[in-house]
C-alpha cells in the first residue's frame, strides 16, 4: 500500500483460519441442503447455482471477518467461539446480527480482489439486515498463504444509512456507504 494506512489490520494465523474454516463448514453443512431443496439462493446477487458454487468461500470470508473483528474489539477469540456455539444451537434463526454477543454491531465481510485496495470497498447493508440503533462494520479480508489479513475499515450507524439506498446495479436493494464515509475504529492495542 502507498501512503498512510487509516485502518487497523488483524492478522490471523493458521490456527485462527482453521477455526473460521470449521465454523464456516458448519454453516455450509446446514445451508447447502436447504438451498438445494428450496431452490432459493438466499442471496440478492447470486442465483442458486452461483450461490452453491460460492457458498464455502462466502461463508469462510464472513467467518474470517467476524473472527478478525471480534479479536480486534475483544482481544481474543473467546467471544467468537461463544457466539458461534450459541448461533449453531438454532442455525435456522441465524445470529440476528449479533457478531459479538450483546453488542449491537454487525460486521460485513468482503474478500479482497487481486489488485484492489481495501479502501475501494463499500459497506452494503440489505433492508432486511437493518435494525434501529445498530452499528455496521466493514472488514475486508485478504487471504494469503497461511494468513488472513482482516482490514477493519470502519463503521456506520443505522441512522446514517438514510439516502444511501441503491435502486439498481450490483447492490440494488441495499444501502451502501463508501469507505471515505465510514467512521474509523479506534487504534487499540491489546497487551494481554
Polypeptide structure, described:
It is built from three helices and six strands. By secondary structure, the protein is α+β, with helices and mostly antiparallel strands. The strands form two sheets. It has a four-stranded mixed sheet with strand order 1-5-4-2. Strands 3-6 form a two-stranded antiparallel sheet. 29% of the residues are buried.
Offer a concise description of the structure.
By secondary structure, the chain is of the alpha+beta class.
Largest sheet: 4 strands, mixed
Structural class call reads: alpha+beta
For the termini, the CA-CA separation is: 29 Å
The largest sheet has its strands arranged as: 1-5-4-2
Shape: globular
Number of strands: 6
| Helix content class | 25-40%
Counting DSSP H or I runs of 4 or more residues, the number of helices is 3
Proportion of residues in β-strands = 15-25%
Residue ranges: pLDDT <50 for 5 or more in a row? none
SSE succession: EHHHEEEEE
Q: Please give the radius of gyration in angstroms.
A: 16 Å
Provide the residue-averaged pLDDT.
87
Notable traits:
192 residues, alpha+beta, four-stranded mixed β-sheet, 3 helices, 33% helix
List the helices and strands and how they pair.
Layout: E1 9-12, H1 14-38, H2 48-74, H3 78-89, E2 105-111, E3 122-126, E4 135-144, E5 147-157, E6 174-178
Parallel strand pairs: 2-4
Antiparallel strand pairs: 1-5, 3-6, 4-5
Helix pairs in contact: 1-2
Amino acid at each position: 500500500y502507498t501512503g498512510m494506512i487509516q485502518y487497523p489490520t488483524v492478522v490471523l494465523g493458521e490456527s485462527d483460519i482453521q477455526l473460521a474454516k470449521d465454523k464456516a463448514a458448519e454453516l455450509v453443512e446446514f445451508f447447502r441442503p436447504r438451498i438445494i431443496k428450496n431452490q432459493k439462493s438466499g442471496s440478492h446477487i447470486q442465483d442458486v447455482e452461483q450461490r452453491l458454487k460460492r457458498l464455502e468461500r462466502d461463508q469462510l470470508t464472513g467467518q474470517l471477518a467476524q473472527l478478525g473483528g471480534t479479536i480486534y474489539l475483544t482481544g481474543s477469540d473467546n467471544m467468537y467461539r461463544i457466539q458461534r456455539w450459541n448461533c449453531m444451537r438454532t442455525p435456522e434463526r441465524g445470529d440476528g446480527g449479533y457478531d459479538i454477543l450483546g453488542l449491537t454491531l454487525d460486521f460485513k465481510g468482503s474478500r479482497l480482489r487481486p489488485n484492489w485496495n481495501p479502501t475501494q470497498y463499500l459497506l452494503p447493508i440489505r433492508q432486511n439486515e437493518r435494525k434501529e440503533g445498530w452499528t455496521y462494520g466493514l472488514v475486508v479480508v485478504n487471504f494469503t498463504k497461511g494468513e488472513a489479513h482482516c482490514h477493519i475499515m470502519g463503521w456506520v450507524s443505522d441512522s446514517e444509512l438514510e439516502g444511501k439506498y441503491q435502486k439498481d446495479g450490483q447492490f440494488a436493494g441495499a444501502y451502501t456507504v463508501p469507505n471515505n464515509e465510514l467512521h474509523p475504529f479506534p487504534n487499540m492495542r491489546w497487551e494481554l
